[in-house]
Amino acid sequence: MNPTGQPVQLKPNYKILGVLAAVGLVLFLLLQVFPSTASDTLEVQQVNVVSQEKAIDSAKAFANDTLVLPDLPAPSVTYHTNAELSGYVAKEKLTQTYMQKLEKVAPYDVFRVHYPDVGTGDALDIDVHMNTGKVVAFSMYDNKTGASQPFSLDPTATTEKDESVTLAEKQEQAQPILKAMGFDVGQLNLQTKGNQQDLLYTTKDGKLGDSQLQLKFTYEYGQIRSFQPVLTPPDTYTAYVKEQTTLAGWLTALGYGLFTLVLGVLAIVFGSLKRRHTSFKRGIVLSIIYCAISVFSVLNMWPILVDITLGESNKIVSYVIIGLQLILNVLMAILLYFSFVGGDGLWRERGINIWPRSKEIGYGKYVLHSVAVGYLYALILLGVQSIIYLILENALGVYSATDDTSSPYNMIYPALFPLLAWMAGIGEEAVYRLFGIAMLKKIVRNTFVACFITTMIWALGHTLYPIYPVYSRPIELLFIGLLFSFIFLRYGFIAAVFAHVIFDSILMSLSLISMGGIVNILLGVFYIALPAIVAVVIYTFTKNKGVENAYPPYVPPAPIPQAYYDPAQGQQQYPDHPQQFQQYTSPVPPSEHENKPKE
């Protein structure tokens, strides 16, 4: 760390860091990227995903030909997943069996094509397989309330309630749909008995662990209203997920939310108390960048946030949730600003320049070295994370489920998804490292304890991700967060931000690249290179690139005279002439004077 009032510089050991980064990259590629060696939890499926346009074409053909709905409005497309099913498959190590036997007819990942009004006041959802492009399910409901509505393959059918429809008539109505879905009715086992309203079939090879595939038709007024291939995990697993989700909610609310709020309030207090050591201009630009990205990220997820509720009248709930999230993001940006001011003041009060200003001597080269350190440590962190995942998977049985709430497929502009890495890097490093560590050091008087506490608060904020058991995520992020703390204390705030941003950018860019298409691939590469581009731009436009070309020119302070012992005076003296200063740079003890022979 650099002392205040001196030129800023960074001298990493690139040789050692380079070797560690190379090892980390190899581990990351072997354990997380290449599917032939990846674990079930880490595996990235290398499959071709159909375009959303292809999904719309398939849904339209099915609606026209099978459902006899010729006039359809413009649809919307969102990605949906059955998180419980995907989690059960991963937990019970059934991935290979599922992919071979049932994934084609009962996928947990689908494109949902939504038609808001098919001409009868009803909305229609058609689920399309993401890899084959075939329709696998559909459902019709009232577009105002979201309630189920009768649906008939016969356009002339009435909606009057009719409970006299026989089981044979239900089967007759279902046959065209089963045929369109690719099922052989002769190979299906009928499960519906007596006057049961729904029509259920099972398949001969539909067993998966403790689950059995069911082909479910629902009826109202004697007419089909939906078809769904149902593969329900056992009740024990469902109860386990519910319990874990509840625990994650408490950990997030109390461990992360409450203590982050406390840090925010303390940041306002210390920002005011330490104002003579810093400036209220500090962090304004970064806070605005954070706020802009966080607000845009919410608006970018508009399709899936609105799609959470069915029916136009129920969407007011989604709008309220979105509004509250936007307000919360703005408040977080305000607290972030005070974290910048308070954190900078606390460190400078101690004489430590952990976050240099652009006008300080050597700032340009300092930024270049910081981004280089960031790239190297990002690769090291990816390797460490891969090892932690592998250990936790084997020791605790850690597994993950799919999640559609943060998928790039559900974004208006998925190409901008990796920008979230900058929001996370800037915000989390400022709150939990720049301010959090400095503030807690005043209380606990121990650097490691301060790092540990702030890291745990940060880690508990990630427990809502669908990774089980939920306590495994804080364990993983405890090690990752302590490494971020080490980077912060060893190389400074800018290097820590770059390391965090690059680390997240690589992971998010891989998600973007996995969507396919040359544009997404090029954008993924661009986002990985973006931190380096930002650093070069800063270096180019800053006047203080280094000590040798500083603006204004850097003049080292005059040396402080060193005391010497003057035998004539019998006490310590300071030279008052340059020649004397050169002559008496090293003090000579009296005993040595006495032992010297006289000339």
TrEMBL record:
Might you give the EC number(s) for this enzyme? 3.4.-.-
Which residues lie within the region annotated Disordered?
Answer: 562-599
Can you give the residue ranges of the CAAX prenyl protease 2/Lysostaphin resistance protein A-like domain?
A: 415-505
Keyword Hydrolase, does the record have it?
A: yes
Q: Which residues cross the membrane?
A: 247-271, 283-304, 316-340, 366-392, 412-435, 447-465, 477-503, 515-541
State where composition is biased (Low complexity): 562-583
Q: Highest taxon of the source?
A: Bacteria
Q: Please give the Gene Ontology molecular function terms for this protein.
A: endopeptidase activity
Keywords in alphabetical order? Hydrolase, Membrane, Protease, Transmembrane, Transmembrane helix
| The protein, known as | CPBP family glutamic-type intramembrane protease
Organism encoding this protein: Paenibacillus kyungheensis
Q: What is the lineage of its organism?
A: Bacteria, Bacillati, Bacillota, Bacilli, Bacillales
